Amino acid sequence: MTQPLSIAVLVGSLRKESISRKVAEAAARLSKGGFSYGIVEIGALPLFNQDLEGGAEPAAWTEFRNKVRATQGVLFVTPEYNRSVPGALKNALDVGSRPYGHSVWFGKPAGIISVSPGALGAFGANHHLRQSLVFLNMPALAQPEAYVGHAAQLVADDFSITVEATRDFLRSFIAAFETWVRTLQPHA
To answer: Phi and psi dihedrals of 72, rounded to 5?
Structure first.
């Protein structure tokens, strides 16, 4: 039997009861198999500072980079802060992109689910994140796009999705994302 493909899940919100984290957990459980999803924590990453590169880099940077490097794809689940991604998520992108020429992101297929307690589903964060992914050479799943509005009412304590239409949509999103990841795997 082949090993499951490993997916790093980066959650943009650091809040303990984060809606984004709940949606990430719920979405990962919709996989039909052949994939292993794991949240890679970003909250303890020291802010990127180029002065620390190449010398006594923070151990958290190395650990983070190694975890992401070992995966075959990345699923971002993020809220929107001020029409963009949260600072912690941007910092994680910066930490993973360095040192120059050794980015852990390069060529990794990506998917984005943006999450909001309001109606817009964090549209701005979704598209702003896509801009960074282009530069990082992360081919992002174009369709379906996933903007999850009114998310606070959608996930139960057991991480089941309580609204059938949302569950069906996220199931189709995860299926498309997994096809995307499989399609972009290097063939030996």
So the answer is: -105, -5
pTM of the model as a whole: 0.96
Our count of domains for the chain comes to 1
Say if CB 91 and CB 116 are below 8 A apart.
Answer: no
Decide if 188 is inside a domain. Answer: no
Q: Does the residue 107 lie in any domain?
A: yes
Rounded to the nearest 10 degrees, what angle do helices 87-97 and 59-69 cross at?
80
The tokens for 163 are: 């609204």
111-159 pLDDT per residue, tens: 999 999 888 888 999 999 999 999 999 999 999 999 999 998 899 888 8
With a cut of 80, say whether residue 188 has pLDDT above it.
no
Count Cβ atoms below 10 Å from residue 83 Cβ, excluding itself. Answer: 11
> For residue 58, is the peptide bond before it cis, meaning its omega torsion is within 30 degrees of 0?
no
> The CATH number of the domain where 90 resides is what?
3.40.50.360
Q: What's the pLDDT score for residue 187? A: 66
DSSP code at position 61: H
Inside any domain, residue 63: yes
Separation of alpha carbons 12 and 20, rounded Å: 7
Domain that holds residue 19: 5-183
Outline where DSSP puts E strands in 33-177: 35-39, 73-78, 110-115, 146-148
Q: What is the 3-state composition of the chain as percent helix, strand, coil, each rounded to the nearest 5?
A: 40, 15, 45
For residues 54-70, average pLDDT: 93
